[in-house]
């Protein structure tokens, strides 16, 4: 983890690609590396929990009262997964919105590490495909200015947007339809092809390198295989990485 800009690298030897643009970065844009954690490769996006998804939106005054839980968990709860800590109203009869009102007709060993990596890679793909299916059935909204997420038929009214020129909007969010990447945002890192090499990735060769989500790169280095899904096209296995001397001789 770069302590200046927050860029993530998965591997023993941090790369030398000069892409640091954070406040206080060096003039040559080299990164200042430090040890990171799980929260860097799998950031958690939260959403207000709705006890009734067809009820009114969470107001600004309720922002400290209503629970905020991981958006993926909230999506699963609204998708009929029962979690005792987060109860929600289930309807067995249809409900309709008429003139803005709801009419309800209801009353650690290498072998073990490789196995974990394989299961983890499968779980990642299952989670992404599951989110994609749930998003097509249940509405999820994201702010067009900031990463705020609200799982439900409409966005909340809490005025906590801190994006650019939020004062002009009085902190109100600009809600739009969310995507899979909004709910499970991938943190992209440079893909390390040769795990046995101790040579850092060179800045001059970065156009030949591939980038993968940090979770996928971690599982791949531990023995998982990127065989399909969204990441297969990002591997760039058909691109040969030249040596620095070879690149200098290229016309």
TrEMBL record:
**Domain APO: where?**
1-85, 142-228
**PROSITE patterns with a match to the protein in the record:** APO
Q: Which InterPro entries match?
A: APO_dom
* GO molecular function list: RNA binding
Q: Which organism is it from?
A: Linum tenue
Please give the superkingdom of this protein's source: Eukaryota
Name this polypeptide is given: APO domain-containing protein
Entry's PANTHER family? EUKARYOTIC TRANSLATION INITIATION FACTOR SUI1 (PTHR10388)
Which is a Pfam family this sequence falls into?
APO_RNA-bind
């Amino acid at each position: 983890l770069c302590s200046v800009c927050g860029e993530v690298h998965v591997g023993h030897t941090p790369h030398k690609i000069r892409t640091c643009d954070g406040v206080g970065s060096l003039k040559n844009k080299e990164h200042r590396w430090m040890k990171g954690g799980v929260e860097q490769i799998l950031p958690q996006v939260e959403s207000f929990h709705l006890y009734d998804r067809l009820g009114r939106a969470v107001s600004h005054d309720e922002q400290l009262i209503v629970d905020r839980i991981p958006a993926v968990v909230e999506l699963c709860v609204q998708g009929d997964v029962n979690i005792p800590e987060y109860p929600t109203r289930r309807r067995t009869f249809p409900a309709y919105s008429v003139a803005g009102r709801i009419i309800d007709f209801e009353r650690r060993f290498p072998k073990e590490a490789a196995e974990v990596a394989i299961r983890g890679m499968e779980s990642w793909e299952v989670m992404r495909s599951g989110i994609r299916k749930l998003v097509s059935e249940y509405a999820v909204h994201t702010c067009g200015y900031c990463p705020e997420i609200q799982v439900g038929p409409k966005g909340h009214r809490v005025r906590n947007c801190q994006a650019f020129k939020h004062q002009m909007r009085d902190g109100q969010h600009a809600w739009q339809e969310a995507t899979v990447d909004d709910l499970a945002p991938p943190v992209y890192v440079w893909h390390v092809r040769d795990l046995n090499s101790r040579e850092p990735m060179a800045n001059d060769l970065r156009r030949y390198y591939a980038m993968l989500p940090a979770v996928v790169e971690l599982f791949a280095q531990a023995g998982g295989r990127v065989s399909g899904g969204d990441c297969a096209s990002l591997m760039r296995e058909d691109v040969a990485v030249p040596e620095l001397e070879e690149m200098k001789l290229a016309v």
